[in-house]
From TrEMBL:
Residues 45-54 have a biased composition (Basic and acidic residues). The lineage of its organism: Bacteria, Bacillati, Actinomycetota, Actinomycetes, Micrococcales. This is Uncharacterized protein. Residues 36-67 are annotated as: Disordered.
């Protein structure tokens, strides 16, 4: 398992997207709640999975903008 470098961006209270390679597939991983997305051939799609998960992550802390 190889962890890829997370992208920079997003609110400080939200963990940046993390993509791990497992064999021929990449998986989005949430370091906050332990969620792991489905295996994808495209890292870009895995990052999209991660961003979508961040909206509903049970461990997510609301940002100052959400009030």
């Amino acid at each position: 398992m190889v962890a890829m470098s997370p992208e920079i961006g997003g609110a400080a209270s939200v963990e940046p997207p993390v993509v791990e390679d497992r064999g021929s597939f990449s998986h989005a991983v949430c370091r906050v709640c332990g969620w792991s997305g489905p295996g994808r051939r495209s890292r870009r799609v895995s990052r999209e999975d991660s961003r979508a998960h961040q909206e509903t992550c049970p461990g997510r802390q609301p940002s100052a903008q959400e009030g």
